[in-house]
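Structure ticket #2291
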Amino acid sequence: MKRKLSMNLADVLRALRASWWLLLVGALVGAAAGVTLSLVQTPMYTSHTQLFVSATGSASTADAFQGNQFSQQRVTSYAQLLTGERLAKRVVDELRLDVDPADLADQIRATAVTDTVLIDVAVTDASPRMAQQIAGAVGVEFGSLVDEIETPVGVDGVSPVKVTVVEEPDLPTSPSSPATLRNTLVGLLLLAAVGGAVAVLRMRLDTTVHEAEVASDIAGAPIIGVILRDDELANEHTIERNSLSRTAEGYRQLRTNLQFLNVDEPPKVIMVSSAVPSEGKTTLAVNLALTLAEAGRSVTVVEADLRRPRVTRYLGMVGGVGLTNILTGSAGLDDVIQPYGEGNLSVIAAGPTPPNPSELLSSSQMFALIDELRAKNDFVLLDAPPLLPVADASGLAVLVDGVVLSVRYRATTRAQLAQTRTTLDQVGGKTLGVVLNIVPPKAEVTSAYGYGYNYGYEPDPAAPTTS
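Resolution: structure written out below.
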């Protein structure tokens, strides 16, 4: 199956929900960075003043109009002069400041008000009082500078332009920077966005199986169960009888789905396996057997993973003799089979570890044993080794009615599952279905069957209560 090369909006939202903590971490780090940046910055204060540029010598209305046009033309140029070093040097000399004129010029901002003869001037300094004094000196010195520039050289006369301070510099009472709230919000939003991008990229690059539809497509078989992660089950390995946990309900749903895979010829001998180790196959086999026995079915579990047997350990049973003794002819079925619980469930342990497990599991003796067990049980479950690391399960797969694959959520990769399908196809094995195993309770996985996991118990109010 080819991997999707694009992500739609639903995929993006799914990625964000799955990795919501990345957004949260990004937001917290961004907010903290914004606050830290604000704290380490020196507070700056800004004093504002406003200048009015007018033409002199307007004797008539026409002269006044022309003078106003002349002043507007000058305003833009004057805004540039206000931020130049020439004016800054005059201010430095006037106030006897110990600062370079170029540095002072960087503290001055001038903006020509559109379609007017007004210029807004802002001066920023670490001291609010100094910002006000510099702004005041700028107004005075700029008026003098304009007189010098606009008065013709060598001509006694009056400058055609006059600069007047119409708003005296104010004394700032609060810092104009740093803008702590703005820095915090910008940092929060910026790094939250980065966290979101990482979440989407993480899902885009994720090669593990975490979607029921994808698992079904790759394996070529339906999803017949979704088993939720359960910390208690991870330690105890078996669910309690009549448990109402969501994990127990998952096994009961699996039991139902398994029995309806083929109504005319339901599978009786089933191999439970996985692509690689540590995907929960033995826990799956054991609890599926317990659930079937709970429903009154006669079940035998065969510990067919001869290299790493786990069934008897999980069930607290003796594992001295078992399957390998039967296959080598040193013991009979009745000699090694062990009842468990109330009698519906029996277990055949692995027995002594043989040097040739693959040959034993695909032998005619194994075929004969499976036929004998088929005749005596409603279901026979074989806990087989994983399919990819060793060839043991490949030979066994052709002797059973079908294989149930345990696929661990966000652990089994697409490539591993695809290779598992290829391995089974090559030997003629049949995959009955896929079980998504060890799924986080909050993961958005929908089984191909059932209504999910939110259908709880609601007592009948008319029913009598029991004490």
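Closing remark: Confidence is low (pLDDT under 50) at residues 1-5, 59-65, 447-460, 463-467.
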